[in-house]
Structure formats: C-alpha cells, structure tokens
Write a structure and sequence with these properties.
By secondary structure, this protein is α/β, with parallel strands linked by helices. The protein has two domains: about 5-120, Response regulator (Rossmann fold), CATH 3.40.50; about 130-220, Arc Repressor Mutant, subunit A, CATH 1.10.10.10. The chain is about 40% helix and about 20% strand. The chain has helices at about 10-25, 35-45, 60-70, 85-95, 105-120, 155-165, 175-180, 190-200, and strands at about 5, 25-30, 50, 75-80, 95-100, 130, 135, 140-145, 150, 170, 210-215, 220. A five-stranded parallel sheet has the order 2-1-3-4-5, with helices on both faces. Strands 6-7-8-9 form a four-stranded antiparallel sheet, with helices on one face. The longest helix has 16 residues, at about 105-120. One of its GO terms (molecular function) is phosphorelay response regulator activity. This is KDP operon transcriptional regulatory protein KdpE.
Amino acid sequence: MKKILIIEDDLAIGNLMKMAFELNQFSYELSVTGQDALQKILSYQPHIIILDLGLPDLDGTEIIKKVRSWSKTPIIVVSARDDETDKIEALDLGADDYITKPFSIDELLARIRVALRRVDEIQPASNLFTNGPLTINFLSQDVCVNEHEIYLTPNEYLLLEVLSRNVGKVLTHNFLLKSIWQDALDTDIPNLRVFMATLRKKLEIADSPLIQTHIRVGYRMIHY
C-alpha cells in the first residue's frame, strides 16, 4: 500500500484528503507543522508528500529544500499561493507539481497517480524510454513517434530528453534553460519558447499532445 504524508495545518482540508485517500486505499499520516513533518518523513518514509506552503512554524519552501538535500520522494504542493513566482520557486527548489487551492480532489488524485507511476517506472540503467507513442533511445539519440523516426536538432533533442527523464513533472523555464545552456539567463526564455515550438511541431504526428504548457511557469511531458 502506498504511503502519503499530508503536511497541512488546515484540518478541514487535511480531513478531506484523508477521506479521499481512505477511499482510494492509500495509507496516510497527517502533520500540521513543518518540524513534525520532517520527523515523519524520516520515520514514516512516505512514497509521496502533499505539502502546504503556509505552515505555522516553517515555510513549505524550507521543507522542500531540506527534503531535496537527501531524498527524491515526490512532492506535490497544494497551496493558496497562486502567484507564478511562488509556483516557480517551489518547482525550482524541487517540487514535482503545484496545485492551487481551492482544488479538486479528483485532480489531486490524478496528480498523485502520475507522480507514483513516474517513480515506479524509473529505470536508471535503461537506454530505452517509451511513453505512449514516443520512443527514445538515449544511447543512439534516435526518436520515434508512432514508430516513425523523426529528426531533431541538438537543442530540440536535449529539451525532449530532459522532459522525458522527468515525465509527469512540471519543469520551469529556468530549469529547462539551465539544463540546456548552463550560462542561460531569464532573458533567454523567448529562445526556449522557439525551440519548444519547433519540437512540438515535429511531435504533431502523435495521436495526443505530448507536451503540456504551464503558462508563465514552464512545461510538462504528459505521462501516458
């Protein structure tokens, strides 16, 4: 049974999540403070963390920093902070996803399933990646969509590889820029958008969109 740690000081929202997780056969623990949450992450060892940023003792971003210093456990932020800068900061620090309150329980459960599948399917030693119609051979850098090989420029391929190695995870503009050009600046975001547009054009033969845009935040490869 998958274990979820809820870090949420609003008991009404915490109880709503607990009922949903019981119905979907998840095990769970609830922390209402950041310090208690950090202890439970070590003792309970959850498969996924649901994190509110506005905690009474620690800002949620501090928890993301601490957890990411030693763990890759998926973190889904569920917060009332709806400003893009808050989303970008949390995602840049290592959060896997960001949902703004008020939220749909069905959406939260869907995001949890995606994050858990991504963890279950990680195969570090494998050179072959498959996601729906997309197949990538990381060794030869061959890319096929619906069994048709497509040609990508070096930058397009790097973008696709980073997205595929983080399938289901929202990647910020800054993260993508630094992954491709280490000395990139925020002013390079228009160039990133151009490369992303040409990459998507080449992926259009897929039955369904492979890359989702998060306006003013970044991009996510959809998990099939």
